[in-house]
Each structure stands twice: as C-alpha cells, then as structure tokens.
Amino acid sequence: MDIQSIKNRFGIIGNAPALNHALNVAAQVANTDLSVLIVGESGVGKEAFSQIIHALSARKHNPFIAVNCGAIPEGTIDSELFGHEKGAFTGAVDSRKGYFETVNGGTIFLDEIGEMPLGTQARLLRVLEAGEFIRVGSSKVQKTDVRVIAATNKELLEFTQNGKFREDLYYRLSTVPIRVPSLRDRKEDIPLLFRKFAVDFAERYKTPPVQLDDEARNLLVSYSWPGNVRELKNIAEQISVLSTDKQVGANELRKFLPVEKVTSRLPMVIGNGSHGGTHEFSNEREILYKLFFDMKKDVTELKKMFVEIMQNPGEAAAAAAYTKESLLREYPSPVELQQPANVLPPTYLPQVSSPQPAVIMPHEEIHEHEEVEESLNIMDKEKELIVKALKKHKGKRKDAATDLGISERTLYRKLKEYDIND
Ligand SMILES: Nc1ncnc2c1ncn2[C@@H]1O[C@H](COP(=O)(O)OP(=O)(O)O)[C@@H](O)[C@H]1O
Ligand SMILES: [Mg+2]
User: Fold this and answer.
1) CATH for 3-181, among 3.40.50.300, 1.20.5.170, 3.40.50.720, 3.90.1150.10?
2) What is the pLDDT of residues 107-128, one digit of tens each?
3) Which of 81, 153, 183, 266 allows an S-S link to 228, with CB 3.0 to 4.6 Å?
C-alpha cells in the first residue's frame, strides 16, 4: 500500500518528509511480527501509528489493545498485563487473565513504556524473547503470541543509563524505531491539519467551516504547539464552536492561542477592561468553560456536588483531614489517560498515591476557612456517592462511573484515594 492511500484510509494529514518517512517505515514493518518503538512528543500521533501498523498487519482481525503504562499503579501493572491466580495477594479473590493472555494473536500497544516498572520490564522481555509469561502468583509458564508496539515521549536511552529502563529490553524493542516528528518540525503541515479539523467539525455540525485569513495562518504556523496535533485539533474545534464569524483573523485567533502558552495552564484573566462588549465577554467565558472541561471533567462534577451540598447541608464531615495537596491531586493536568477496559477489583489496590502533575484552580485562592469546611463536605459527599453508585451497580465500576458522570479512570483514582473497598 502506498503512502497516499494509507493517509486516505486512516485520515492522516501532512506531507512533511519526516512524516512520510515515518509512515513508510510503519507500512514496511506492519506485516512482520517485529516489535516497534514509536518515539515522539505527546500528541504527535503515536497511537494513531500503532493502529495503522496493526490494521496493516496479518493480525488485523485479532484484538488490538492500548495500555498506558504510566496510568496503571506500579502494584497492579503485572496483574493487568499478565494476570494473576486466586490468592496471589491480599484481595485476589479470583484468578484473572491479563492482556497478554486475552490478546493472544493480536497486538498490544504499550504507551509510555518508559514508565514501566523494572519488574514488569523483566516479564515483558521474557514475552518478547520466548513468547512466555507467568501469571502473578503462579508457577505455570504459559505461551502467548502477541505483537508489541511500544511508545515513548522520553529519551529511553537516557533511562537505560540511569537504570530506569533495562538496556536489553530497550534494544529488543527498538529493532525498528519510528520517529514521529513534532508539529513545530513540520510547520508546512499546520494549515493542512487545521483545515482538516475545521472541515471535520463543520461536517459533524452542519455548519460552514471556519477559515483563517493570511495573517491568522501565519500566527498559527509560528505558534510552537507543545501539545502537537492533539492541541491543534482542540484549538481548531474551540474556534469552530466559539467564533461567530467564520472568517477568523489573527486577533480572533490570538484569543485562543496564548492560553496554551501560559505555563501554569491557567486560563486567561477575563474582564480586564480591554473588552467593552458583553458579547465578547460571554464569548471568553465560554472559552474558559471549554478549557476547564479539557483540563479536567471533574471540575463540573465537583461543581454539581457543591450545589448539592449547598442545597442539602447535611451532617458535617468527620474523618478526612483536608489538605491542599489532596485538592491539588484532584486536578491533574490534562494528560491523556487511557484506562484499559477491565480494571482490577479495588480490594487489592496498593496504597500508593500516583503523583500527578497538579493544576491550581483559581477558586483555591478564596477564603481559606470556608474552603476547608466545604472541601471536607465535598470529600465526604463524594465518597458517599461513590459507595452508593458502586452498590447500585453491584460493584461494576464501569456502570458506576457512567452513573457518576466520571471516567472509569477517575473512579479508579478516587477509590484508591478514599480507600474504598467494594
Ligand atoms: N497526521 C495526522 N493527521 C490527522 N490527525 C492526526 C495526525 N496525527 C495525529 N492525529 C490526531 O491527533 C490526536 C492525537 O494523536 P495520538 O495518536 O493520540 O498522539 P500520541 O499518541 O502521540 O499522544 C488524535 O486525535 C489523532 O487522530
Ligand atoms: Mg498517546
């Protein structure tokens, strides 16, 4: 299959030589069973590449699963990937198959491979070298035939030098490395990508697509795009939603760009006097809300709970001591989190707190005393709601999370944080 038809089939936009080269390598390696290491910054399309490789391989009718190694707690990753036996550890009430068992015949995409614990790396190496694995708590060696595609946005070779990553595994994985270029290194593709996302959006919502004038296009191209294609897509969609004028100039575009550049990731200050019209003001408010959604859907959820508590100021909170850190942990930065489909029962979740990059929310600044009171309430209420939802859905996390309006991943984190065993 030639490059252009791959692009058409998978909706890949761009014509930069480095991108074409990466696609070429992907197409060539797809039909082998070789491990592939995809290297590139966040949002460049690493996962998209892994899907292309799988879809072009002989395994295409077999399962493909993406696992984010950085999103699974160290204590559960072995069990997630390789399964465990009943009684393997406290709370392992049943045996469970891991992904290397269930995906047999297919492809596993191991994202953020650099975050994989050393012990897990040893197990992975065994799979790659001998096609063998052992469930946690078992002594029985099992066979599996899984193709591994790994991805990293870190320099893995450096990790091997300071002992964070096994050198033998590194070389095993990087037989065929694919480097997906950053957007700032293929600026010629930026207008094409923007156009695609604007058109996609317009088709979805049956509106005319937004268009940039020359000055706006130059601004778009000169921006550094730290979040790469993902960021560009977000911004194209924001502009599509919020711009009343479909002809977007540089001044209008500028309203959307600087926000992403602010290091604290805080939205811009609104109502600073430079905007007269109420229309513009409400427009910026909308942008703000949209950004909040992007940063963390939980904010909405917390707001809802807030209202609930205000209307129903029940019993005061008891145990949980509120700390600023715990609130900060609630607002990790908008990294992509992929929770694999079935998560482990919480009973054997280790009591580790996954250090998440924090985002400081503006309302933290306001009256500390009130804040402490209410936060205690929120945490209590939240815990209560979670327990209720789990009960209602007989411990089924997926359903409980849907009911709560949060992601499974968030529920997972909260269970751990509140030490809830269902
Ligand atoms: N060249 C491209 N053309 C069109 N869309 C792309 C391209 N590269 C990435 N995307 C889109 O950008 C988003 C982020 O890509 P993803 O593969 O998740 O990045 P990564 O895994 O590197 O963080 C996805 O929605 C993906 O479909
Ligand atoms: Mg990704």
Assistant:
1) 3.40.50.300
2) 999 999 999 999 999 999 999 9
3) 183
